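Lab channel / #folding
Pinned by the channel admin:
"Please post every new chain as: sequence first, then the structure tokens as a reply. Keep commentary short and put observations after the output so the thread stays searchable."

First post following the new format, from NK:
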Amino acid sequence: MCPGLFCMIRLQKYLAECGVASRRACEKLITDGLVTIDGVTVTELGTKVDPAVQTVTCEGKPVMPDKKVWIMLNKPVGVICTSDDPEGRERVLDLFTDVPGRLYTVGRLDVMSEGLLLVTNDGELAHRLMHPRHHIEKKYQVWIDRELTPDEIDRMLKGLNCHGENLRALRVEPLRRMIASQPGYTLTLGEGRNRHIRRMMDALECKVIRLVRVSVGPLRLDSLRSGERRDLSPSEIAALRKAVGL
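Reply from TO:
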């Protein structure tokens, strides 16, 4: 049994979990000679560290684990998920200036889409939730300018060819609730490509009126209002970790 609290862990993984940067960016910090273990510069990516007994610094500053935070946000329309925006639009991370440390959005919603977005400093959990091999289902409610035909729904389930990508939905179910007399559907996706639903609707020559993500794996948006956020409960965190094998 390893006596250390964390035992031996790859250096870049430890840096990412401490919120220094993404794992890929942490690898560059290491190869650039900006990371030390017990005062010795390390440049090999295979290096492991036991944080319980060793001291790690990055660019001269001690690296310590952040307290893990898991927050559900109902992203409003007009807010972007990217970390930088040349146009100066409001970013999701601008809504979390009161939360210290580096935060990640788990996946993205485009600027005109809204709904459930998970924000965390748990880099490992974020990475696993976004990796397609874990098949984390996501549900969306979409309202469009006309009803879909049975043939169109069948094509969505089989997959639509959108500029060389095969985009499909696992399930397509009609919604009773209409918006401005426009029909709506619940779409379940097994993976999320860039603008997945909007591109499928474009292929069917449908105009999207509103697009809301209402669930990610075991998480449900429920009654959280636009722009509101809340911490995940211990049971929700446990369910997420179980879903990705942590």
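NK: Residues 1-5 have pLDDT under 50 and may be disordered.
TO: also worth noting, The domain at 9-62 is CATH 3.10.290.10 (Structural Genomics Hypothetical 15.5 Kd Protein In mrcA-pckA Intergenic Region; Chain A).
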